[in-house]
Amino acid sequence: MSGVASGGSGESDEPGIRGGSAGARPGAPGGLWSRDFGLFFVARAIAKLGDTMLPVALAAGMLQHGYGAGAVGLAMAATAACFASLVIFGGVFADRFSTRLLMIGADAVRLVTQSLAAVFFLTGHVVLWEICLIGAVNGAAAAVFQPGVASTVPRLATDVQKANGVIRVAESGAQLAGPAVAGVLVGLASPAAVFAAHAGTYALSALCLLLLRLPPAVPGSRAASLGFRKDLAVGWREFRARTWLWGVIAIWCVLMITVTGPATPLVAVTVVEQHGSGAYGLVNSALGAGTVIGGVIALRLRPRRMLRAGAFALVGFAAFPASVGAQAGVGLMVVGAVVAGAGTSFWAVMWATSVQTQVPPDVLNRIHAYDVAGSLAMLPVGQALAGPAAAAFGAERVLLMGGVMVLVVCGALLAVPAVRGLVRVGGLAGGSPTPPLPGCDNCGSAAWGAPPQTPLLKRRRG
């Protein structure tokens, strides 16, 4: 693969683009809604639609074939573990090769694996290790896909927070529709139909990315590669130099083990067993509606201390596991899901924008990869422990404790000075720089062999 896309796409996808951090991004179009941003917007929305359909299909399909919460948790953990362990390598690839081609290839792989899963569930050949293997391959493909997302947004839009907010709203709209569609498909057809539809979303995403044209890189802005291992080390040094980044990630690991990891399979199994797959689809759609609300708020609110505002909003996430654990009824679960979705969506936009604006473009993919890997490192642990924890204490108690732990995590975020005190970079009213990831406080890369900084790239150390 080369750093320049082949064919007639017109893409110049050079790694190591260095741009200003206090204004419009070089190469980005003057307005938000361009043809290419629209294609990327559709690709992200379609992919999210499929991803939010999958938990319904997996839970319903595994239960239908005699498996329980532990098996559902293991299947989900296989994807998360493979993704978290390989995404840092994906970040290096994204800084060296064409991010667009890497994303298209990853979509193609997942098109094949999800089609295979559809065949398995259609024919009744559902073996746990095979489902886990498919999940692991999907995780590896996602690890190649995800790092390029961080650098694609600032190349397509000048107002990065607005772009992140718009994409979040689109993904949230898909999350609103996805579980409900999956529930209907499971009821009218079978889980196999949902897996087939999920495979189709990857085909559409790949098509949009195939038609996408990234603006050309700034001439002479490409940082020379030092070799795979050294590039990996540079990314790690840049990551650990930002206190707010690794601080958030360390706290996030606690959230993954105690809340998100166990809640993913336990909420699915609890709601499906007690109220049916239709109710689970409704609750997840409410979560999607909440994330739409949070994304819309993030489009309008531009707090000076973005992570502090995001941490306060994240408190609302406690309402989701707590309402399910308290067996509050479908109505109150829906309300809890809306509140939780709004809080997490607002946090996500604040976090993504912080990362993309604080981190220099030549290491952004690698930093984003370390961010994602650290954020999700403990997710498979939490998912794998969901079954044993539910057997020992009861699923409801585990979910209630998860609600309490959300409050603990938010308090910890606000207790770290580098997190609560991080000030947004530049004025984002008309154009904004690349946003940073969950814990990276402006560090320079010149010290690690990258080209010298220009005045626009001066960065504060956290």
Q: What's this model, at a glance?
A:
α1 (35-64) runs antiparallel to α7, α2 packs antiparallel against α9 and α6 (160-188) runs antiparallel to α13 (330-358). It contains 17 helices and no strands.
Question: Which features would summarize this protein structure in a list?
Answer:
disordered N terminus, single chain, 17 helices, 462 residues, globular, mainly alpha, disordered C terminus
Describe the structure.
By secondary structure, the protein is mainly alpha-helical. The protein contains 17 helices and no strands. Helix 1 packs parallel to helix 6, helix 6 packs antiparallel against helix 13 (330-358) and helix 9 (243-275) packs across helix 15 (379-393). Mean pLDDT is 77; it is low at 1-30 and 427-462.
What is the helix/strand order?
HHHHHHHHHHHHHHHHH
Class by helix and strand content?
Answer: mainly alpha
What would the average pLDDT be, to the nearest integer? 77
Shape: globular
End-to-end Cα distance, whole Å, is 36 Å
User: Roughly how many Å is the radius of gyration?
Assistant: 21 Å
Helix content: over 70%
Low-pLDDT sequence parts: 1-30, 427-462
Largest sheet: none
**Number of helical stretches of at least 4 residues:** 17
Strand percentage, roughly? Answer: under 5%
**Total beta strands:** 0
